[in-house]
Automatic annotation (TrEMBL):
InterPro entries: Alkaline_phosphatase, Alkaline_phosphatase_core_sf. SMART domains: alkPPc. This is Alkaline phosphatase. Its EC number is 3.1.3.1. Transmembrane segments: none annotated. Keywords: Hydrolase, Phosphoprotein. SUPFAM superfamilies: Alkaline phosphatase-like. GO terms for molecular function: alkaline phosphatase activity. The lineage of its organism: Bacteria, Pseudomonadati, Pseudomonadota, Gammaproteobacteria, Cellvibrionales. Pfam families: Alk_phosphatase (PF00245). The keyword Phosphoprotein applies. The keyword Hydrolase applies. It comes from Zhongshania arctica. Belongs to the alkaline phosphatase family.
Length: 515
């Protein structure tokens, strides 16, 4: 179709009209103006990059391009080419800068709530079990189950951690991951720990919703094995790292309970048992690949018995969930982008963001854009900045080298500085070839300036400088982005409240109407 960009070409000088910047952008404009999209979807996949603010996207996109031998700035992460996007306001009801529990509760229930609580409304008192009753919210995962769809929850964090737990649990405190984490008063008042709620999901939902008959979560994969096993070495997994892997004080082995409940299901805990699952015949898959969080993507090769990547977990989940002709709702969290930032390791945060991009691409490749809505978003941002005036193609993890220069540009204190950095946190540490960003927590606080003249700031073990000393770098309060493709994605635009994410899912799947 002819559009105005071509009509104007005759009056433009050739260095303008023939410029690839001009012709590429004109061609892209045409693709954006001809797209039409249906509104109802069979399946929805929601990807959440925990802590994946806009500066993280920009830096990850540049790092991805530079790892592929390009200048970097001109590329896109897989989901950045999706046709629809919006900016999302992330605040919690009681917090200007939010946490993952309140934000994921908003995305899963359509209702904003307080920081630190899961699947409960704002009248909850954090930490007070007696205020849970009457404040429970129903999540999109639960509604999809009631509708007869298949459901999946994946995270590289502990599966009992805030973001994944907000999809299935109701808790006055995000930290009640197992009974050993709960105050006695909460247990005596009848509150159930988060791991137990995961294994009892089917029974709890049927008890909560009259006349409902659901078959339970179909695919669950992540870390956090410790909350499912008794505090007894006899229950250690074969790849346990701690002398006693489990944390439970009530003696329950929740992995055994799950296997009893779903005898045809597959419980897996390492790469080989994951690989052995045949997705074409599997009905239920429960994977707990680490005692605590799964590894950072850059550190995954060091895992004792191996663990699958986010991309591998996403692909297997889609293959299993596809077995249900009624469709599925899959929630995928990249949990460790957030942890990399908290540790002040841009390398870790960005390499995990690139892996999320890979997982989204795998989902794009495995689904039909006419029937599957894919949304990619974050829960909140981080105080992570891209600073100074580095020249085009300057290593994103490097020191600022100005346009026309070959040597790093010194700041007013006579020392070079990095392009990316943090407003607060533990500050500069050079751990060399270390690939576990969390190793920094034993090193103490070194906020403030350091002489980086002889430091390799692009190494995996480099932790960026920070201005304000804190025990951990913090979340940030500015908006994050939402990217969407597929049926219903056209409703994603403008600046929206985070609880709108639930309503986008509900619009596409009609979760509240019958089949
Ligand atoms: Zn965080």
């Amino acid at each position: 179709m002819a559009i105005a960009t071509h009509a104007a070409a005759a009056v433009l000088p050739s260095n303008q009209s023939n410029s690839p910047w001009y012709t590429d952008a004109a061609a892209t404009t045409e693709t954006k103006t001809t797209a039409t999209t249906p509104t109802k979807a069979k399946n929805v996949i929601l990807f959440v990059g925990d802590g994946m603010g806009v500066s993280t996207l920009t830096a990850a996109r540049i790092l991805q391009g530079q790892q592929n031998g390009n200048s970097g700035e001109e590329g896109y992460l897989s989901f950045e080419t999706f046709p629809h996007s919006a900016l999302v306001k992330t605040y919690n009801v009681d917090a200007q800068t939010p946490d993952s529990a309140g934000t994921m509760t908003a995305m899963m229930s359509g209702v904003k709530s307080d920081a630190g609580v899961l699947g409960v409304a704002e009248n909850i008192v954090r930490g007070d079990c007696t205020t849970v009753s009457g404040n429970e919210l129903i999540t999109a995962i639960e509604l999809a189950e009631i509708k007869g769809m298949s459901t999946g929850i994946i995270s590289t964090a502990r599966i009992t951690h805030a973001t994944p737990a907000a999809a299935y649990a109701k808790s006055a405190d995000r930290n009640w991951e197992d009974d050993g984490d709960m105050p006695t008063a909460a247990k005596e008042a009848g509150c159930e720990d988060i791991a137990s709620q995961l294994v009892n999901f089917e029974a709890n939902l049927e008890a909560r919703i009259a006349n409902s008959d659901v078959d339970g979560l179909d695919v669950v994969m992540g870390g956090g094995r410790r909350s499912f096993l008794p505090k007894d070495a006899a229950f250690n997994s074969s790849d346990a790292l701690s002398s006693v892997e489990g944390d439970r004080t009530d003696g329950r082995d929740l992995t055994a309970e799950w296997k009893t409940r779903y005898p045809a299901g597959n419980y897996v805990f390492d790469q080989s048992s994951f690989d052995a699952v045949d997705a074409s015949t599997a009905s239920k898959l429960f994977g707990l690949f680490n005692e605590s969080h799964m590894q950072y993507e850059q550190d995954r090769g060091n895992d004792v018995a191996g663990e699958p990547s986010l991309t591998q977990m996403t692909s297997k989940a889609i293959d299993i969930l596809n077995n249900n002709s009624k469709g599925y709702l899959l929630v995928v969290e990249s949990g460790r982008i957030d942890h990399g930032h908290h540790a002040g390791s841009a390398y870790s945060a960005l390499t995990d963001a690139i892996e999320l991009s890979n997982a989204v691409q795998a989902a794009v490749d495995a689904t039909n854009p006419e029937e599957t809505l894919i949304m990619v978003t974050a829960d909140h941002s981080h105080v992570f900045t891209i600073a100074g005036y580095p020249k085009r193609g300057n290593p994103i993890l490097g020191k600022v080298v100005a346009v026309g220069e070959t040597e790093p540009t010194n700041a007013a204190d006579g020392m070079p500085y990095t392009t990316v950095g943090y407003t607060n946190g533990l500050g500069f540490h050079d751990l060399g070839a270390e690939t576990d960003a969390d190793a920094v927590y034993s090193k103490g606080n070194q906020a403030g300036r350091a002489d980086l003249g002889s430091v390799d700031t692009e190494s995996s073990g480099f932790h960026q400088e920070a201005l304000i000393p804190l025990g951990s770098e913090t979340h940030a309060g500015e908006d994050i982005s939402l990217h969407a493709r597929g049926p219903g994605s056209q409703f994603v635009h403008g600046v929206i409240e985070q609880n709108m994410v639930f309503h986008m899912i509900n619009q596409a799947l009609d979760l509240l109407t019958g089949e």
